[in-house]
Amino acid sequence: MNKQIVHDALILTAFTLVLGLILGAVYGITKPSIDKANEETKKEAYQAVFADADSFNQKDFDSEKADAMVADAGYDDTIDDVEEAVDASGNVLGYVITVTAKDGSQGSITFSVGIKNDGTVNGYSITDISETPGLGMKAQEEEFYSQFENKKVDAFTVVKQKPASDDQIEAITGSTITSKAMANGCNAALYYFQNALGGAQ
Question: Please, what's the largest Cα pairwise distance for the chain?
């Protein structure tokens, strides 16, 4: 009986090792393709929120200090990346700030926010979202995201009625939580822009 148990355990161990080696090999093969796809997704997001830019230069920043800064301002978000949007002559037109909003209804939402030098928000482009289909996923639809475009405001607020000013965003019906997460993420990006990147020029 004991010999059978040892035999079965050895087979299981060998199987696990082989499976681990196979998975490791597959990961090694697919990782470059995955990384390349992720990089392309980021670049598409940058271009979507800064169509005038010729290229983007990653700006060095302290992510821990950035996160602490927006947390002190009351935002449950992280600053993941900061890119300078530059024209063909190398002039900085503004910034693309990638944030992760931690307060979505179904989890975190990662998106890039374009902000011009004068503080005008170009809009946002989502790179990762898992909200409820037909509800929170509408954050990806033009009817909602267009409300953030070409707005020069200090911060956005979410309302349930027709907006009365540029800083008001009409919530997605039945998905106020997602709407607020998007607004707060944009606000975190704006706050970081205003307090760490020199603000409006």
Answer: 80
Residue 65: both structure tokens together: 């200090």
Q: Which pair of tokens denotes residue 140?
A: 């990806």
* E-state strands within 30-167: 55-58, 77-86, 92-101, 109-116, 121-128, 157-159
Phi and psi angles of residue 147, each rounded to the nearest 5 degrees, phi first:
-65, -20
Please give the structure tokens belonging to residue 67: 């996160």
| 37 has a pLDDT exceeding 70 | no
Q: How many residues does the chain have?
A: 201
Tokens found for residue 97: 């700030």
Would you tell me how many other CB atoms lie within 10 Å of the CB of residue 56?
18
Bridge partners, residue 124, by sequence: 113
Distance, CA of 46 to CA of 55 (rounded, Å): 9
User: DSSP state, 140?
Assistant: G
- 73-85 tens-digit pLDDT: 999 899 999 999 9
